[in-house]
Amino acid sequence: MNQDPDNLNIIPEEVVDYLRKLRKRERQLIYKKKLLKTRFLDMGGRLKLLEGRDEDLPCMVSSKNVYQLSTVRLVRENLVRMLSATSEDYVKCYLELSIVQRSLNRDLQTTLRSLNQNQLPTNSIEQN
């Protein structure tokens, strides 16, 4: 909202709070989307490492300081399952982010249009 600071005092605080909450939710979803994309790409890289290997070959799986002996087949199956779940989460996050961004854009435009037309009351109590 690149408006004159004096004009911003006209906007009811409830509207400003609502827009701030939407912006905060947008930032959270952007972060989550990036995290899921990184996880998705990481699992894809791990699956590539297993390409062309014999299904029954033993392999070591580690997470932090825990090591476990497994087979290529079991590791591949778990990675595919995790990849599927991560891609579903990514799509849901992407859709929610799109909805939030569309809503934020629409609400900002409405607020700015109203501000430019001086239709917003100077006091939120006057609305009631």
In short:
The protein is mainly alpha-helical and 128 residues long. The protein has three helices and two strands, in the order H-H-E-E-H.
Account of the 3D structure:
This protein has 3 helices and 2 strands. With 128 residues, the chain is mainly alpha-helical.
Number of helices: 3
Number of DSSP strand runs: 2
Instruction: Describe the sheet with the most strands.
Output: 2 strands, antiparallel
- Order of SSEs: HHEEH
Q: What is the residue-averaged pLDDT? A: 86
**Radius of gyration over C-alpha positions, nearest whole angstrom:** 24 Å
Strand content: 5-15%
Task: Indicate the percent of residues in helices.
Answer: 55-70%
Poorly predicted residue ranges = 123-128
Structural class: mainly alpha
Walk across the major sheet and give the strand order.
1-2
The coarse overall form would be: rod-shaped
State the distance separating the first and last CA atoms. 26 Å
Please outline the helices and strands:
Elements: H1 5-8, H2 13-50, E1 58-63, E2 66-71, H3 72-116
Helix pairs in contact: 2-3
Top keywords for this entry?
128 residues, mainly alpha, 3 helices, 2 strands, rod-shaped
